[in-house]
Amino acid sequence: MTRYIFITGGVVSSLGKGLLSASLGALLQARGYSVRLRKLDPYLNVDPGTMSPYQHGEVYVTDDGAETDLDLGHYERFTGVSSRQSDNITSGRIYQQIISKERRGDYLGGTVQVIPHVTDAIKEFALAEQDGIDFMLCEIGGTAGDIEAAPFMEAIRQLSIDLGRGRSIFVHLTLVPYLAAAGELKTKPTQHSVRDLRSIGIQPDILVCRSEHPIPDSERRKMSLYCNVSETAVIPALDASSIYSVPVSYHKEGLDVEVLKAFGLAHSQEPNLARWLDIMDRIENPEGDVTIAVVGKYTGLQDAYKSLNEAIIHGGIANRVKVNIEWMESEVFEQEDAIAKLEKVDAILVPGGFGKRGTEGKIAAAKFAREHKVPYFGICLGMQMATVEAARNMAGIKNAGSSEFEAHQNPVVGLITEWIRDDGSVETRTADTDLGGTMRLGAYDAVLKDKSKVSDIYGAMHISERHRHRYEVNIGYVEQLEKAGVVFSGMSPNGELPEIIELPDHPWFIGVQFHPELKSKPFEPHPLFASFIKAAVTHSRLV
Ligand code: GLN
């Protein structure tokens, strides 16, 4: 029997609902339960794939090729459970399905309405693919009271009735602000938010209260009284120094016990938090530190590189070092004298990205790393630009470039219009295909070269990694590049798409066409990130 936990947010956005959901999932796992986490997003985009990282942060890609909300990344990192397409829904996708059904005539004779058609579709999504797991955690995006969230709130209210007594609970996350002038924490916004929920028939079972100051018992009592929840179910959530200490903090505040109590389940045993305590110990007691330059395009908003940021931290956890990340705008390196900024760092990472702006700066950063033997990690666009740099400066291919930006005499990186999936099916695209959901998306296999650096790092010859790109290193240039010293150490199984490049006479220079950061976890750092940070440590000791 799958039990449902609905997680909503109130008062303001950005309180860390995703982190709360992920941490609760981890705590239930630590008690031996199986979990799955889902995100229900009220916005009208079909998926976040076409949104700018500045609007919505990173687009998180699943194995099955869905472009999803970045909260799904938190879920995977905290629970190790791979997310699927069926774990993220938006109003846009629901309306798209309903409207195409209506056009087909599926509702012939009927009026199509928010209740029941939209709410039924939301319920169907939440109930799908339960796979016998113990707990399904459903996070509702947005804030209680939002106009667009209303059908979702109504759907989860209905769902709790449909599921029957004891099968679901509601957890509501709010803010308890501190008024410095009055020297007081204020509970009124929480009271109002819960009143909003109750007016639509949802009574939270547990209140989680974000606060910058400890919440005194008197205020806890007040919220309990006015919000109609038991006093022990008012859980304070103070700011944490690292997101990886959040599961343990929530446990100390009694969150997991309250959840089990609300379901009438046994809760006397302690959860096994060993893996989280080890991670916290490694973060809090590093044996050194290194500085990594991330040369990118959306460096003003760290959420744009959420998984990357975390994977770098995991690389630090693996090596017991603190990693300082210097976010650098790649455009800066288009000025000749700026490159000196890279002299102070222990390693350089050029992440994925889209569009021409800043790409010459990324090429300059790759050149600097290659010539100065600084560890270099190129991911997706960062791999493509390192290949262009090698083509221009190692293989002497004049005017080498990517056809993503303009027509090139030598499109070393070009648009790919056909490729074969691991199951043998063929995906085709044309230059004017829709932009939404049409990239090479999701998990694809790669075959590694024997005795290459990457086969050593992975300890395997066959890997599967997640992709999100439209362009590829052009197979037609591989021979010339190989002659110049570039090793193509990972290829698609049919040998046609370059997946990994490396430079053998460099301490650590690797470019990958895929996004390894999406699969890294604090308790299972991705081998490429662990190895890259290790190379940075070695480099820092050399200079
Ligand atoms: N813009 C490049 C492409 O579409 C790289 C994409 C990426 O870095 N994710 O191929």
Number of helices: 17
Bound molecules: glutamine
Output mean pLDDT: 92
Outline: globular
Helix content: 25-40%
Largest sheet: 9 strands, mixed
| SS strand fraction | 15-25%
Helix-strand category: alpha/beta
Number of strands: 25
Q: Can you describe this structure?
A:
This protein has 543 residues and is α/β, with parallel strands linked by helices. The protein has 17 helices and 25 strands. It is globular and about 75 Å long. The model has no long low-confidence stretch (mean pLDDT 92). Glutamine binds next to strand 21.
Short structural summary:
The chain has 543 residues and is α/β, with parallel strands linked by helices.
List keywords for this structure.
543 residues; 9-stranded mixed β-sheet; 17 helices; 25 strands; 23% strand; binds glutamine
Topology readout:
Layout (H helix, E strand, L loop, with lengths): L2 E7 L7 H13 L5 E7 L11 H4 L3 E2 L5 E2 L2 H9 L8 E3 H14 L9 H14 L7 E6 L9 H14 L4 E8 L2 E2 L4 E2 L2 H12 L6 E6 L5 H11 L6 E5 L7 H7 L2 H9 L10 H11 L4 E8 L9 H14 L2 E8 L17 E4 L8 H14 L3 E4 L1 H13 L6 E3 L7 E6 L2 E3 L5 E3 L11 E9 L4 H6 L3 E8 L1 E3 L4 H7 L2 E5 L6 E5 L6 E4 L14 H16 L1
Helix pairs in contact: 1-3, 1-9, 5-6, 12-17, 13-14
